[in-house]
Amino acid sequence: MLLPFKVKAPRHNGLNTVTNGAMDYLSLDLLRLGLNDKFEFNTTECEAAIIPFSGCADIEVNGEIFRLERKDIFTESASALLIPRNTKVRFSSSLSAELAICKAKTDVDGEVIYIPKAGVKEKTVGKGIWERKVVDIIDSKVGASRIILGETFNQPGGWSSFPPHKHDTIIPGKEAKMEEIYLFRIDKPEGFGTQTIYNDKNNFSFKIEDYDAVAIPWGYHPVSVMPGYSLYYLWFLAGEGRTLMPNTDPNYKWLEE
User: Fold this and answer.
1) Per-residue confidence band for 94, with pLDDT thresholds at 50, 70 and 90
2) C-alpha count within 13 angstroms, C-beta hemisphere, residue 206
């Protein structure tokens, strides 16, 4: 059984491997481009969703060029580009850029899909200290083959993925089986949060700092952040189907009432 793990995202110029492909479907890279840099790669067996963290990059796919740009994650909404498997991708930047490349293994040939900033869906969920902003970027209505992706913003001292839920078992009408990766940012680099992952038999807790990524193969997985600091995480999932069906820990179901 794969255990949850935490890894710090490298931030060298060029392509940085964040997770090592240990999960059944998901892996994560971070691409950093400097002034007038160019980079090229092939998606091979994965569809790939590209999310800008900062800067501006032009991305050429099948002869068409798409631009992804963002001042930073805490002040501006994301656009995104979904690229099918076995596709060559060329990046170029007239300015510097930092982009997350979220990958999911697939046996389906898809299509290139551009999601503009106006196409993402923002909502407020929870209440009190677990009220947070959730942004759906690639939901079940977007024509991906496997991946579901979005962003969550915790208020200072707040909780998210809360009340605790899981999605590791097929229970028709109640829960879908999907693995997940979180990539965290903190608005001030000295701040931190926590990531807890647990089930009836196991319990893990990680101190979360800026650019930490956590693999969640199973279990309930709530997140919190210290007072005075805002926390962000990019989240993406793949598994059985593309319908999000989180199952709340029955001990804390009453909090949803």
Assistant:
1) confident
2) 23
Quick one: average pLDDT of 17-34?
95
Asked if residue 36 lies in contact with residue 114, where contact means CB atoms within 8 angstroms, the answer is no
How far apart (Å, rounded) are the C-alpha atoms in residues 81 and 149?
11
Please give the domain boundaries of the chain with CATH numbers for all domains.
10-256 (2.60.120.10)
Distance CA 67, CA 47 (A): 19
Q: Which amino acid is at 147?
A: I
Q: Determine if the peptide bond prior to 163 is cis (ω within 30°).
A: yes
Per-residue tokens: 27: 């892996």
Tokens found for residue 28? 């994560």
* Strand ordering across the sheet containing 203-208: 159-160, 223-225, 193-198, 203-208
**Angstrom distance (rounded) from CA 232 to CA 254:** 26
Decide if 178 contacts 140 (C-beta within 8 A): no
